[in-house]
Amino acid sequence: MGVDLSGAGSGESGRGVTEDSPSPPHPPSGRAAPGIRFAGIGDEAAADLTGQLDALRRLGWTAIELRTVDGVAVADLDDRAFAAVADRIGAAGLDVVCVDSRIANWSRPITGPFEDDVRELRRLARRCATLGTRFVRVMSYPNSGLHEEEWGRRALDRMARLVRQAEQEGLVLLHENCSGWAGTRADRMRELIDRAGGPALRLLFDIGNGVPYGYDARALLDEIIDHVAHVHVKDARTGPDGQVRYTMPGDGESAVRSCLRALADHGYTGAWSIEPHTHLQPHQGQDTTGADGVAAFVRYGRCLERLVRQETLSDRAPAGGGRHG
Ligand SMILES: O=C1C[C@@H](O)[C@H](O)[C@@H](O)C1=O
Predict the structure, then answer these.
(1) CB distance 139 to 173 below 8 Å
(2) How confident is the model at residue 6 (pLDDT cuts 50, 70, 90)?
(3) Of the residues 10, 13, 37, 42, which has the maximum number of CB atoms within 10 A of its CB?
(4) Which residues of 130-166 are buried (b: 16+ CB within 10 A; e: fewer)?
(5) Is 259 within a domain?
(6) Residue 153 sits in which domain range?
């Protein structure tokens, strides 16, 4: 079937792919496989909502993941701006699959004010109801000088309280393998679930974060796959100069094909949401989406569609049916 399960990447995924490159035949609704739909984090295409919606429209996908609009986090938009965002997303026929919060993320160390996270979650509860999603992306607090044990104790305590709050608000927190106490280790992710979890805590698996954080994300996936409820598609490669560069999906060292295949084989349902990082790296304060962000995002999406249809799930029944079908 010609599938590269090594995940090493042919280096050719992005070659020759243009925004208008015809994809292999696929339903126009952005379905990757039965139960799996394509989505994208809108602000990786453009800061403004017009650009974000345009990118998804050009791809023909019906699902967006929201992080910021005009550079403002969803929780910080004023009520009028938020109402306009929600109306326009609805009018564009898009579903919101997840809101990416700053709760416990790289900008909020464990010694910072917990109240910021409680307040953000409270605000997002109302907003997620309006947007029609229950998923809120969180991390698990980077350390700032505490002993390892104390860091873990405080992170677990805070996360348990946030999970209880989410449950009361009807939300589900998705912990991302990124920054934080449980960000890079499967054993800690499982400990988080065992000790702080409940129905309101699941895992978000970002395929590309292993490269910048220096671990094997493909191996980590095997240990957490039962708990994965959402996926970011990202790929990266470390150059000879030690610099991490974000690549088209399949061209880096993240074993994108193998990860997607493992998820599909495991019966994963939900979104495969692109987070290219080629033009926006929020944690590095780098944003060049203004140049050709929408076109680049669309190229990335087309590249992923091709990778999935031709190299990853080529032996599967075509996608179809249902809202998540
Ligand atoms: O701000 C962020 C930093 C990224 O590296 C991470 O994967 C991502 O999801 C995010 O929101």
Answers:
(1) no
(2) very low
(3) 42
(4) ebebbbbbbbbbbbeebeeeebbebbbebbbebbebb
(5) yes
(6) 12-312
Please say whether the beta carbons of 247 and 299 come within 8 A.
no
If you measure from the C-alpha of residue 315 to the centroid of ligand 1, how many angstroms do you get, rounded to a whole number? 32
121 has pLDDT over 70: yes
Tokens matching residue 228: 């994965």
Best of 283, 284, 286 for a ligand 1 pocket test (most atoms within 8 Å of beta carbon) = 283
| Among the listed residues 270, 193, 256, the one whose alpha carbon sits nearest the alpha carbon of residue 14 | 256
DSSP letter string, 185-199: -HHHHHHHHHHH-ST
Ligand 1: residue whose CA is nearest its atom 8: 178
Residue 229 vs residues 8, 83, 134, 136: alpha-carbon distances, Å: 25, 27, 12, 11
Residue 154 falls inside a structural domain: yes
Query: The domain that contains 281 carries what CATH number?
Result: 3.20.20.150
pLDDT > 70? residue 233: yes
Six-digit token pair at 102?
């700053």
- DSSP 8-state code for residue 308: I
CB atoms inside a 10 Å sphere around CB 308: 29
Strand partners, 244: 238
Q: Burial level of 63, CB count in 10 A (0-12/13-18/19+)?
A: buried
For residue 318, being part of any structural domain is answered with no
Complex ipTM, two decimals? 0.91
| Both structure tokens of 324 | 């998540």
Number of domains into which the chain is organized: 1
Place of tokens 């060292």: 253
Pairing of strands 63-66, 68-69: unpaired
Give 312's pLDDT tier (boundaries 50, 70, 90).
Answer: confident
Distance from Cα 110 to the centre of ligand 1, integer Å: 18
Tokens of 289: 């989406």
Cα end-to-end span (Å), the chain: 24
Find out whether the beta carbon of 206 lies less than 6 Å from any atom of ligand 1.
yes
Query: Quick one: which of 180, 181, 269, 253 has its CA closest to 218?
Result: 253
Residue with tokens 């991490």: 244
Is the dihedral angle over the CA atoms 195, 201, 204, 209 positive or is it negative? negative
Q: Is residue 319 part of a domain?
A: no
